[in-house]
Amino acid sequence: DVITAADLENLAVLGHGNGGTVYKVRHKTTLVTYALKVIHSNADATTRRRALSEISILRRATDSPHVVGFHGSFEKPSGDLAIVMEYMDGGSLETALADGTFSEERLKVVARDILEGLASLHERHITHRDIKPANILLDSKGEIKIADFGVSKLMCRTLEACNSYVGTCAYMSPERFDPEAHGGNYNGFAADIWSFGLTLFELYVGHFPFLEAGQRPDWATLMCAICYGDPPSLPESASPKFRSFIESCLKKESQDRWTAAQLLTHPFVSKDPETH
Ligand code: ATP
Ligand code: MG
């Protein structure tokens, strides 16, 4: 059934993001708790466009068990835009990290869940583009889900290409339909894997990989380190399997980086006993 503003009552504020506020709400008749992201009517055009894009991407991705559930969207009479999401009651990986770093055993599970989410997004030609600890949510059942699709992008340009192509689009080559999926210069899928690798690294060491613990980022230095330096490497305490897994994510050249589907077969996360 379609959920409207009148069906919901506010319980609490869960967080503030760029241009929006996320509330904990309850459905008055079903008593189900949801997270409601509200973009105010006076938000700037970019914020509004991002919210509309987030809605269309969530709708496409919602059947994946490791993507936050989507339960509809509506516009209030005031002009506020609202997105109804599954409520994740366990905070994010960023808040979890505040309680202490993650063991390899725990990271194995976290890595596999995020990868399954990423693999299903990438299969649907969606790049997340903002993978980081704060955007991976947890719940008390132990579920781990990818959230925050505000800057995500649908890479498949089939319809757009067909509509703009002068002539018969039936003769267009595959890479013209979807350059990113066929080795285009910018590979958004591989970019998600890089961010995923840094996220796991951070959960293991407790701070952003390119910085010392507690060091404040100086963006120019950081950018140089990322672009011109070697990829960060894990401390001695890390097992060879974990080390190899992180190396496969943090290849400097995007074409050398493993895909989400490949990483799911890596011995660090693989459920297949043969590879252990
Ligand atoms: P930013 O761009 O600053 O990260 P945003 O406006 O894109 O923020 P989100 O990251 O989607 O918004 O959400 C902001 C915060 O609200 C999250 O960090 C999280 O604490 C909380 N939140 C978002 N979605 C949910 C959810 N489904 N369940 C529980 N909490 C949520
Ligand atoms: Mg966010």
TrEMBL record:
<dbReference type="InterPro" id="IPR008271">
    <property type="entry name" value="Ser/Thr_kinase_AS"/>
</dbReference>
<dbReference type="InterPro" id="IPR011009">
    <property type="entry name" value="Kinase-like_dom_sf"/>
</dbReference>
<dbReference type="GO" id="GO:0005524">
    <property type="term" value="F:ATP binding"/>
</dbReference>
<dbReference type="GO" id="GO:0004708">
    <property type="term" value="F:MAP kinase kinase activity"/>
</dbReference>
<dbReference type="GO" id="GO:0004674">
    <property type="term" value="F:protein serine/threonine kinase activity"/>
</dbReference>
<protein>
    <recommendedName>
        <fullName>mitogen-activated protein kinase kinase</fullName>
        <ecNumber>2.7.12.2</ecNumber>
    </recommendedName>
</protein>
<comment type="similarity">
    <text>Belongs to the protein kinase superfamily. STE Ser/Thr protein kinase family. MAP kinase kinase subfamily.</text>
</comment>
<keyword id="KW-0597">Phosphoprotein</keyword>
<feature type="binding site">
    <location>
        <position position="37"/>
    </location>
    <ligand>
        <name>ATP</name>
    </ligand>
</feature>
<dbReference type="GO" id="GO:0006950">
    <property type="term" value="P:response to stress"/>
</dbReference>
<dbReference type="InterPro" id="IPR000719">
    <property type="entry name" value="Prot_kinase_dom"/>
</dbReference>
<feature type="domain" description="Protein kinase">
    <location>
        <begin position="8"/>
        <end position="269"/>
    </location>
</feature>
<keyword id="KW-0418">Kinase</keyword>
<dbReference type="InterPro" id="IPR017441">
    <property type="entry name" value="Protein_kinase_ATP_BS"/>
</dbReference>
<keyword id="KW-0547">Nucleotide-binding</keyword>
<dbReference type="Pfam" id="PF00069">
    <property type="entry name" value="Pkinase"/>
</dbReference>
<keyword id="KW-0808">Transferase</keyword>
<keyword id="KW-0723">Serine/threonine-protein kinase</keyword>
<keyword id="KW-0067">ATP-binding</keyword>
<dbReference type="GO" id="GO:0051707">
    <property type="term" value="P:response to other organism"/>
</dbReference>
